[in-house]
Amino acid sequence: MEENLIENWINTDEKLKDLIINIKLTKKTLIEKAEIAFEKLSEIYKIPRMPTDIVESIDDDDEFDEIPEQRSLFEEHALIKFLAHKNEDPLRIVLSAAFNLLNNYRVDLFQVAEKKFAKNIPERIGIGIKGEGFNGEVVFLQKGSKSWVELGCKIMRLMD
Which superkingdom does the taxonomy of this entry point to (predicted)? Predict the structure, then answer.
């Protein structure tokens, strides 16, 4: 059986364990607890919260081709939330997004497109994220649709 990487992270990182305990002790809803975790994880682990918080520090050099694209917690969280089951624990989704970014994992955009379009993925598609912070929402852009800016997206990735 595969080791649960998130549980391992929680059990081996005292800062994270304390954060989760403190959040769970509040009398907030599950969504509110997840929102608190989103903000605190970004702050504690210095994860870029929004796309505008990303500092590009790597030149386009062949030497760096294996480094995954930079993403904000906003973007990774929205993508995982889109792929998640309807009743998935919102705190678990936030933890998964933070874990991915801290460990250089990224949600595969093809999986996101496949969930939306099944086997009929358009030849060229944009995947945008609109909203703010914890409340990011995946938007699909196709030829002839409004632009990502008109749809209120904070970021857009092209799939060819």
Answer: Bacteria
Q: Which two tokens stand for residue 83?
A: 């792929």
Q: Which amino acid is present at 65? A: D
Please report where in the chains the tokens 């678990």 appear, as a residue.
92
pLDDT of residue 62: 47
Identify the CA nearest to 77 among candidates 36, 49, 114.
Answer: 49
Query: What are the DSSP calls for 79-117, one per residue?
Result: HHHHHS-TT--HHHHHHHHHHHHHTT----HHHHHHHHH
**Helix (H) / strand (E) containing 74:** helix 73-83
The tens digit of pLDDT for each residue in 118-137 reads 989 988 899 999 999 999 99
Task: Count CA atoms closer than 13 A to 59's CA, side-chain side.
Answer: 3
pLDDT at residue 112 greater than cutoff 80: yes
Kindly list the domain boundaries of the chain, sorted by start residue: 5-159
pLDDT tens for each residue of 141-154: 988 778 888 899 99
* CA distances, 87 to each of 6, 92, 116 (Å): 18, 11, 18
C-alpha 2/C-alpha 135 separation (Å) is: 30
Q: Tokens in use for 132? A: 């703010």
